[in-house]
């Protein structure tokens, strides 16, 4: 059996040009390499799976490359690049602070920092999840971070910048990584699917990208899961079934029932949703998001804020024409209030059903 490599590893960016959704950061790093103004310590912070450690590795590889391309990318041919590509480079040291967070671990690292690199100019120390270091470990690290040897560069990565001591922050150049946009994730997944010989619906890609919440690594992991479930032909229906995502169709149907004050059909549809195994709290939150998307669709200027496929955008635009603006404001307010009080309710199903009855009653009240 052929050894399977997960997509998050197989398609991990190896150059600045292939990093997705962090153009301003990669441009700044390349400019610092070009000018030779390298910092002694960097802090890469942001949500999981957005490219912090990847950018740290690319930066470490590039500054030691002996034959940079005109685009300031590593050549992959010199001795330093080859040793990096085979994970045999002594110039790059990675430490996981989640499991190596004691004073002794940091002291061992400080002893290692004194040794100059054998190949290339710099020794790069990447410390992942740096917020997990103990206060004592941070304090032991301070002096070395402030005055490291000329050959040493530290790159600290974290998902929780607020947990890092201000004295550490003041010694670093701070780069805030953004969540990756849905469109960027969709385009990247489409390229991966093409390379893997997978046929996949655009709507399915949007579901995966939305489910990943801005994390490319999560999106690739979900993609692998869906391909394992569906094979080489992935449809929208397969995707929502495997991810247990409620179909947009239900929310469009329910909104039509609310506009007609058809409470009976709304309750029957909700029962159908529960019988399919969906959580009533997630349903309520999904309905709230649907009202928001309808409100956004009321004005052509805000339609680009919708993170859905073009065909679904068109459906939102069409349904929003039938929704009075007052209805959407009231529905959003009601949905938010019912969601906030959900935990206090003893009968969760009845709580959501009361919300549906209120939605059905919005236009009736206004007519009376």
- CATH architecture field of the largest domain: 3-Layer(aba) Sandwich
Bulk shape: elongated
Q: Biggest sheet: strands, sense, closure?
A: 5 strands, parallel
State the fourth-level CATH superfamily of the largest domain. Answer: P-loop containing nucleotide triphosphate hydrolases
Instruction: Calculate the terminal CA-CA distance, rounded to whole Å.
Output: 70 Å
Q: Kindly provide the radius of gyration, computed on alpha-carbon positions and rounded to a whole number of angstroms.
A: 26 Å
Write down the CATH topology of the largest domain.
Rossmann fold
Output the CATH class name of the largest domain. Alpha Beta
Number of domains: 3
Secondary structure tally: strands: 7
Oligomer: single chain
Structural class: alpha/beta
Low-confidence runs:
none
H/E series: HHEHHEHEHEHEHEHHEHHHHHHH
Average of the residue pLDDT scores: 88
Strand order of the largest sheet: 2-3-4-1-5
Describe what this molecule looks like in 3D.
Strand 3, helix 6 and strand 4 (152-158) form a beta-alpha-beta unit. It is built from 17 helices and seven strands. The chain is an alpha/beta fold and 368 residues long. The strands form two sheets. A five-stranded parallel β-sheet has the order 2-3-4-1-5, covered by helices on one side. Strands 6-7 form a two-stranded parallel sheet. The N and C termini lie far apart (70 Å).
What would the keywords be for this entry?
5-stranded parallel β-sheet; 7 strands; 17 helices; Helicase, Ruva Protein, domain 3; single chain; 368 residues; 3 domains
């Amino acid at each position: 059996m052929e050894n399977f490599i997960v997509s998050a590893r197989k398609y991990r960016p190896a150059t600045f040009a292939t990093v997705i959704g962090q153009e301003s950061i990669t441009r700044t790093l390349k400019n610092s390499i070009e000018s030779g103004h390298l910092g002694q310590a960097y802090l890469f912070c942001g949500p999981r799976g957005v490219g912090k450690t990847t950018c740290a590795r690319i930066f470490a590889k590039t500054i030691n490359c002996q034959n940079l391309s005109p685009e300031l990318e590593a050549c992959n041919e010199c001795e330093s690049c080859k040793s990096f590509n085979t994970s045999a480079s002594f110039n790059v040291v990675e430490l996981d602070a989640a499991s190596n967070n004691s004073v002794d671990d940091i002291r061992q690292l400080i002893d290692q920092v004194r040794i100059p690199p054998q190949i290339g100019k710099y020794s790069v120390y990447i410390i992942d999840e740096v917020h997990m270091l103990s206060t004592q470990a941070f304090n032991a690290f301070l002096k070395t971070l402030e005055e490291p040897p000329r050959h040493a560069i530290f790159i600290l990565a974290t998902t929780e910048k607020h947990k890092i001591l201000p004295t550490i922050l003041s010694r670093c150049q701070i780069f805030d990584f953004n969540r990756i946009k849905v469109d960027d994730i969709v385009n990247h997944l489409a390229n991966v699917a093409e390379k893997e010989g997978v046929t996949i619906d655009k709507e399915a890609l949007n579901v995966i990208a939305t489910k990943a919440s801005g994390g490319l690594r999560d999106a690739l992991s979900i993609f692998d899961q869906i391909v394992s479930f569906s094979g080489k032909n992935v449809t929208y229906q397969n995707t929502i079934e495997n991810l247990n995502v409620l179909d947009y169709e239900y929310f469009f149907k329910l909104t039509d029932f609310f506009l007609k004050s058809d409470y009976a059909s709304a309750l029957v549809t909700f029962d159908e949703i529960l019988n399919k195994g969906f959580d009533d709290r997630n349903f309520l939150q999904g309905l709230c998001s649907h009202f928001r998307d309808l409100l956004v669709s009321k004005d052509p200027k805000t339609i680009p804020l919708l993170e859905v496929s073009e065909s679904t955008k068109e459906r939102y635009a069409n349904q929003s024409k039938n929704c009075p603006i007052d209805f959407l404001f009231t529905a959003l307010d009601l949905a938010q209030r019912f969601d906030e009080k959900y935990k206090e309710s003893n009968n969760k199903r009845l709580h959501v059903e009361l919300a549906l009855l209120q939605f059905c009653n919005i236009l009736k009240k206004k007519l009376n």
